[in-house]
Amino acid sequence: MSSESSANEVLAGYAAGRVSAEQLVAAVTAAYYQGRGTERREQLRPIMELIERAHPGVVELSGNGERPGFAVRLAERPFPKRYEAELRQMVAGLVSAPPPSSSLPAPSVFARILRAIRRVFSS
Fold first, then answer.
1. Is residue 96 very low, low, confident or very high in pLDDT (cuts 50, 70, 90)?
2. Where are the domains of the chain?
3. Rounded to 5 degrees, what angle do the CA atoms 10, 14, 15 make?
């Protein structure tokens, strides 16, 4: 299961009252930091800004010996109750909004191969 579909399920679950705020924070944070440069990341940005404002220090970056970059680790603390109403409103707005349709064409096979080669040489 991809982090995007997992985040969608958790967002819908939180809007329906089946998922706790802590579970939502974990799923949204993981999807946000894994989705560099994606449209989904931009959709999650307002929720992530609220999470970071209400729950500072929720994310800890640590070195990753397996590949370049950082590993994201979540702090295990309860989400402040006073921000849950605002969080619930933001999630409900995101869940009820229709997904934006992409007007960009899918990348060609050649473009994907070229991108993969660039990734190999940039690491």
1. confident
2. 3-122
3. 120
